[in-house]
Write a structure and sequence with these properties.
The chain is α+β, with helices and mostly antiparallel strands and 182 residues long. Helices cover 31% and strands 26% of the residues. It has helices at 11-22, 40-49, 68-75, 103-118, 167-176; strands at 2-5, 26-28, 32-35, 55-64, 88-96, 121-122, 129-136, 139-145. The protein has an eight-stranded mixed beta sheet. Helix 3 packs parallel to helix 4 (103-118).
Amino acid sequence: ECMALVSRGIEDVACMEIAEITGAKCRQGEGCVLFSAKSMKDIFKISYRAQSISRAILLLGSFEFKDFEDISKKIKGIPVPSKPKIRKFAVKCKREGPHDFSSADVEKELAKHIEKKLGAKQDFREFELMFFCYIQSNNLYFGIDFAGLELHKRQYKIYAQSSSLRCTIAYALARLSGFKKG
């Protein structure tokens, strides 16, 4: 099971694009789409070619929670792959909705769990593997971020400005307009 993070409102465009790239069927969430990849190659293809997504994540686990204490308990049940052997990792969390905890709180809790399981250390500068957590309302999704960076940032854009249109939104608008080659 995989997940792609998208800007809210363009989940349907992301599903169309993922289906075109890999043939996978998607389920839309709020700010994300869930899909099954046939192989790791499909996730790499999506990470490299998709223009409507911000992140591509191989899900390791997901659950509903009530509060931060509930998250702390349930995190311990999420499997963490031990191969290949890594020494340094990073954990990033994106949280949407009202909560009585911060993204940093969740990142610390996940880092403790991963350190215990892998014997590796968290390092935000020189990591070998990026773990990503997405919290939407009372749902938590956790997995491996395949790119380790935000895919909506374009290399040709040297300076991002607050007045700039996000690239994923521009792509979705072009798709929804019915634009065709030629």
